[in-house]
């Protein structure tokens, strides 16, 4: 029987390895569901890396197994192996392949980072407002040049009041007279900014996030809401201003494929769009003390209507004036103030109520 030529075998092996690697790259099932726009970009990069890793694994392990079998010791052969040393073309080949792969992956990952808005967040400390470009042409051209191209420069336009930007806000800003700049707002110096599509737009919602041993606190500056879990509307442009109270923590939502360090005394930014309604875990990804493992909460992605409802309910529950929130916080009232409305309803006179209260006090 004639031998099959080695080149033909190599070609077949190459095609098979390529097909298997392509398949594994798409079907590895290693990642949780995608719930943000950034997740798609990160996963594409990850899939390419899994594909390359699979191909390398098959080539290396395949070669080892093949050589073990093909060049195994023949029975009765007690000789040493042939002393082969130095093969310049082979060495150049196995140096060039990883170099090309690493440079390629490096360029690709930087591109993904840039698309996610990862560059240049701290290039300016206070921002010029440019809402949807409405105000931008009101600015003198030399000032336009002063604003860096980096996406995070645009984060500067985040309203610090955490409001969902309404059409009314946009109209108001669009009506500003020529040359007028809306008040400057401090910007986080580190973190992810807006991606290319969101550049030049104010985020729809700003939330201040504080990490502390061992919990996350979320503050909605405009409505004054303070919660232990993050609530956001789906499909909206969200800006988180993250900081820490004690040590370094790290705000990580695996389903969003986003992670940002929380630094004491230094705000960092994270801007993203959630794409799927649901509840996802928030994990602290920085070993921050003995109970670091328990530093978890969740992010609830609502439909815009549900989010408005949540916002209203919580704004009422957390109102500052206790007299308007008797039902929520009766502990703030004296016994008399608390009981008066009920006494009136039951036809008990003020005098009787005073006597009853005096008796209760004397007994306690
Ligand atoms: Cu932590």
Short description:
It contains eight helices and eleven strands. The chain has helices spanning 6-27, 37-70, 88-115, 141-146, 167-174, 304-317, 335-346, 350-363; strands at 190-191, 205-212, 215-220, 225-227, 230-233, 237-244, 249-253, 258-262, 268-273, 278-284, 296-302. Strands 1-9-6-2-3-4 form a six-stranded mixed sheet. A five-stranded mixed sheet has the order 5-11-10-7-8.
What layout of secondary structure does this protein have?
Layout: H1 6-27, H2 37-70, H3 88-115, H4 141-146, H5 167-174, E1 190-191, E2 205-212, E3 215-220, E4 225-227, E5 230-233, E6 237-244, E7 249-253, E8 258-262, E9 268-273, E10 278-284, E11 296-302, H6 304-317, H7 335-346, H8 350-363
Helix pairs in contact: 1-2, 2-3, 7-8
The structure holds copper (II) ion.
């Amino acid at each position: 029987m004639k031998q099959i030529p080695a080149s033909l075998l190599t070609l077949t092996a190459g095609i098979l390895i390529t097909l298997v690697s392509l398949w594994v790259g798409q079907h590895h099932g290693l990642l949780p569901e995608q719930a943000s726009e950034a997740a798609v970009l990160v996963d594409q990069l990850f899939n390419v890396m899994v594909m390359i890793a699979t191909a390398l694994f098959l080539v290396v392990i395949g070669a080892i197994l093949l050589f073990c079998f093909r060049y195994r010791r023949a029975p009765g052969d007690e000789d040493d192996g042939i002393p082969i040393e130095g093969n310049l073309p082979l060495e150049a080949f196995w140096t060039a392949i990883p170099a090309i792969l690493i440079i390629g992956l490096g360029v690709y990952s930087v591109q993904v980072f840039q698309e996610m808005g990862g560059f240049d967040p701290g290039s300016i400390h206070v921002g010029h407002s440019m809402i949807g470009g409405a105000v931008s042409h009101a600015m003198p051209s030399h000032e336009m040049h002063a604003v860096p191209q980096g996406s995070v420069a645009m984060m500067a336009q985040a309203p610090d009041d955490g409001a969902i930007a309404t059409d009314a806000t946009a109209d108001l800003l669009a009506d500003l007279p020529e040359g007028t700049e809306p008040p400057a707002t401090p910007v986080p110096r580190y973190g992810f900014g807006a991606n290319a599509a969101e550049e030049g737009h104010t985020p729809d919602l700003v939330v201040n996030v504080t990490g502390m041993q061992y919990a996350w606190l979320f503050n909605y500056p405009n409505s004054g809401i303070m919660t232990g879990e993050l609530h956001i509307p789906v499909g909206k442009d969200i800006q988180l201003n993250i900081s820490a109270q004690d040590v370094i923590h790290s705000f990580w939502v695996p389903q969003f494929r986003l992670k940002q360090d929380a630094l004491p005394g230094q705000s960092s930014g994270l801007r993203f769009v959630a794409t799927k309604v649901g509840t996802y875990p928030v994990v602290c990804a920085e070993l921050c003390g003995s109970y670091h493992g328990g530093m978890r909460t969740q992010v609830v992605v609502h439909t815009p209507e549900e989010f408005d409802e949540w916002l209203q309910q919580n704004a009422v529950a957390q109102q500052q004036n206790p007299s308007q929130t008797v039902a929520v916080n009766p502990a703030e009232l004296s016994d008399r103030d608390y009981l008066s409305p009920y006494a009136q309803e039951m036809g008990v006179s003020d005098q009787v109520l005073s006597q009853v209260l005096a008796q209760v006090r004397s007994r306690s």
